[in-house]
Structures are given as C-alpha cells and as structure tokens.
Design a protein that fits this description.
Layout lengths: L3 H4 L3 H22 L5 H21 L17 H17 L3 H23 L5 H7 L4 H20 L22
Helix pairs in contact: 2-3, 2-5, 3-4, 4-5, 5-7
Length: 176
Amino acid sequence: MTLDPILGGGALITIHTFAALLAFAAGPVVILRSRRDALHRAAGWLWVAAMVVTAITALGIFQLRLIGPLSPIHALPFLVAFMLWRAVRAIRAGDRVTHGRTMAQMYIWSMGVAGLFTLLPGRRMNAVLFDGQSWPGFWLAAALMAALALVIWRAQPAAEAAQPDAFPLHKAGPSG
C-alpha cells in the first residue's frame, strides 16, 4: 500500500481523497449511532462538510473524460447538493425518517457506488490499496461495501416506528 498515487496527483486530488475518506469513515458513525444527541449532530455536520468538499473538488477532476472533459461522475456533486438540502430541510421540519433515509441513501450512493468506481483496476485508489491491477481486491471491496450498505439501510427506522425528533432545529410556531 502506498499513498504516492494520491499525494502525487496534485492538491485537488489530495484534498478530494482525504475529504472523501473522512466522509466514508464518519458516515457509519453518524448513521448507526442509536442516540441522536449533540455528538450525532456534531459528527453529522463534520460528515456534511466532508461531503461538500468532496463534491466541490470532484468538479475539478477531469481524468475519465467520457463526455468531452466530463464523465457521468460529474453529475454526483449536484445530486449531493440536492440530497443535503433535502436532508437538512427534513430535520428542520422534525421529520427524522426522511432525514435519516436521505442521509443513508446519500452515503450508500456517493460513498458506496461512486467509491467503488474509484477502486476499479487502473484507478488511483486501486493503486493505493491493491497495487493497481487487482480485480480480487475490487470484488472484496464491493462485497464489503454491499454488506455495509445493507447494515446502514436496515438501521433506518420505519416510518410507523419513528419517534418525534427530540432536538428539532426549527419548531413551528402557532401559525404552522
């Protein structure tokens, strides 16, 4: 294992990678934490900040070039922005179920699915973790990510079992 493919890729790739790794590590801590308290919120905002940095820096990385200078992955920052807006709007309204599901979906799609593409043989993260041409390493990572995604998705509360939010960021006044 070597960090040379990341550290030698320039500042944008280095920042993008470390922000994505921070989001990847913080996500399960926030999503799987059973108590929704100040630590959950602080870690959640750390995760949001890491996702924003990851999304913004992704817009400046043009290595796949499938559609002119772009690739389908360049649509992901816009999806992340929409999902973050949706999740924050839901929790401000006290809707924990929508908030939790939106955050879990965003984690699974952005960290899991998009993250797996970075582990394909010939890509930088495959070179970091598996010396660059490892299909068995990719499939192992895919199996582990699928297991993590299943755990995260199953941890989401059912709508009928959800408790009202104990810490809403916005409380409706007498008019609504």
